[in-house]
Amino acid sequence: MKKALILASAYTAAMLIIYFLLNTFLDGSVWSGMVVSKSALTTEYCEYNNVQRFFHQNINTYSNLAYFFVGVFICALAWQDNKNQSSTDLNWLQKFPLLSFLMGGSFIYLSIGSAFFHASLTWMGQSVDMNGTYSISISLLFIAVYHVFHKINWSETLKKTTIVTALLVILSFYEIHLLVSSGVLLPV
What we know:
Number of domains: 1
Oligomer: single chain
Largest sheet: none
Distance between the termini: 34 Å
Order of helices and strands: HHHHHHHH
Shape: flat
């Protein structure tokens, strides 16, 4: 666990430096060719929009590094679980580290998607941000299903098929969320 914390801290610090450099050396004109999000025209998201800066919403963009930290931390734990598959005292989730990779990857995806949205305030950024939110919900759903059925012997093929299915569902939500309001879709 200590290794996972150090790794997550190091990667997050590196991302912080990257974010700082991007925000220092680029300006808001980078986003000028992209469609502005409708919600960005009417909502401030608790921070005033500064469209001259690369990060239109500075704090909202940087705060997504918390999701990045959690995602890297979960992936590091999954990596350790994957290396220890020969151990006989693993819990039910440790026996399926791909689910943890899915969850950690979803946090990283949300971090990048939400940072993209709050930096650019673009329609594409908002779409990726929302899809990142759905990816966490979908990952939790797949973890819950596995929790219910974890006593069944899951073959490696079934585990991989489950992860591919989860990724396809996440990908499909990129389009589905355009058809159904997030106020309905997310609770469902």
